[in-house]
């Protein structure tokens, strides 16, 4: 994410509301501590740093996920970043069961360009984004296709976590040998044949018998 926000790493900010003390440690976690004398006062994790929330190609918040379990799911928190005179946790709410919302004020996000995603990317990913913009402009891809490419760019940059289905798809793509042309196929076949020859020689040197499958 934005390099200038890394100076918040290693620091924690607290907010007290009624009997609860909330603590937000950027790029680390969010915790909640019940400040009562009850024997079973709650103290736990509301989320661990996971990924960015990106809207209109701008970083708008941080997702802290996989906190303590809450019935059938894990607690999670979205931290909204807003401009403020000092670094402080300003507001906490629970819009839905075990999903929390924190508002964090900081002067680090007051500049209009301070939360833009594009400048934080590598040159290669910026080029990929530029190409997608051009394709959209030329009407060669739909708005949906454009958003899909952007999501892939954000995942590749590590700003968003890829969903499990995406990961499985990526892994299977790596394993599958796909050839666009006969030339590519022939070239790959030649390389693999050479490799097998070398391996057979190597096995022979170590006295290991090589049994080829005549059916393949």
From TrEMBL:
<keyword id="KW-0732">Signal</keyword>
<dbReference type="InterPro" id="IPR039794">
    <property type="entry name" value="Gtb1-like"/>
</dbReference>
<keyword id="KW-1015">Disulfide bond</keyword>
<dbReference type="Pfam" id="PF07915">
    <property type="entry name" value="PRKCSH"/>
</dbReference>
<keyword id="KW-0964">Secreted</keyword>
<dbReference type="GO" id="GO:0005794">
    <property type="term" value="C:Golgi apparatus"/>
</dbReference>
<dbReference type="InterPro" id="IPR010506">
    <property type="entry name" value="DMAP1-bd"/>
</dbReference>
<dbReference type="InterPro" id="IPR009011">
    <property type="entry name" value="Man6P_isomerase_rcpt-bd_dom_sf"/>
</dbReference>
<feature type="domain" description="DMAP1-binding">
    <location>
        <begin position="117"/>
        <end position="216"/>
    </location>
</feature>
<keyword id="KW-0808">Transferase</keyword>
<protein>
    <recommendedName>
        <fullName>N-acetylglucosamine-1-phosphotransferase subunit gamma</fullName>
    </recommendedName>
</protein>
<comment type="subunit">
    <text>Homodimer; disulfide-linked. Hexamer of two alpha (GNPTAB), two beta (GNPTAB) and two gamma (GNPTG) subunits; disulfide-linked. The alpha and/or the beta subunits of the enzyme constitute the catalytic subunits.</text>
</comment>
<keyword id="KW-0325">Glycoprotein</keyword>
<dbReference type="InterPro" id="IPR044865">
    <property type="entry name" value="MRH_dom"/>
</dbReference>
<comment type="function">
    <text>Non-catalytic subunit of the N-acetylglucosamine-1-phosphotransferase complex, an enzyme that catalyzes the formation of mannose 6-phosphate (M6P) markers on high mannose type oligosaccharides in the Golgi apparatus. Binds and presents the high mannose glycans of the acceptor to the catalytic alpha and beta subunits (GNPTAB). Enhances the rate of N-acetylglucosamine-1-phosphate transfer to the oligosaccharides of acid hydrolase acceptors.</text>
</comment>
<feature type="domain" description="MRH">
    <location>
        <begin position="10"/>
        <end position="112"/>
    </location>
</feature>
<dbReference type="InterPro" id="IPR012913">
    <property type="entry name" value="OS9-like_dom"/>
</dbReference>
<dbReference type="GO" id="GO:0005576">
    <property type="term" value="C:extracellular region"/>
</dbReference>
<keyword id="KW-0333">Golgi apparatus</keyword>
<dbReference type="GO" id="GO:0016740">
    <property type="term" value="F:transferase activity"/>
</dbReference>
């Amino acid at each position: 994410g934005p390099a200038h926000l890394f100076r918040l790493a290693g620091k924690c900010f607290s907010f007290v509301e009624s009997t609860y003390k909330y603590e937000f440690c950027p790029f680390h976690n969010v915790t909640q501590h019940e400040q009562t004398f009850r024997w079973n006062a709650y103290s736990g994790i509301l989320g661990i740093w996971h990924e960015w929330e990106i809207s209109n190609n701008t970083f708008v918040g941080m997702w802290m996920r996989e906190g303590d379990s809450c019935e059938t799911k894990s607690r999670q928190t979205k931290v909204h970043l807003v401009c403020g005179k000092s670094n402080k946790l300003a507001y906490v709410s629970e819009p839905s069961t075990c999903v929390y919302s924190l508002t964090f004020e900081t002067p680090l996000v007051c500049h209009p360009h301070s939360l833009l995603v594009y400048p934080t990317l590598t040159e290669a990913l910026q080029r990929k984004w530029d190409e997608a913009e051009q394709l959209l402009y030329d009407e060669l891809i739909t708005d949906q296709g454009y958003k899909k490419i952007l999501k892939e760019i954000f995942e590749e940059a590590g700003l968003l976590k890829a969903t499990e289905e995406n990961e499985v798809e990526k892994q299977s793509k790596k394993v599958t040998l796909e050839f666009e042309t006969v030339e590519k196929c022939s070239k790959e076949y030649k390389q693999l044949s050479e490799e097998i020859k070398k391996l057979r020689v190597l096995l022979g040197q170590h006295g290991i018998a090589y049994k080829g499958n005549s059916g393949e």
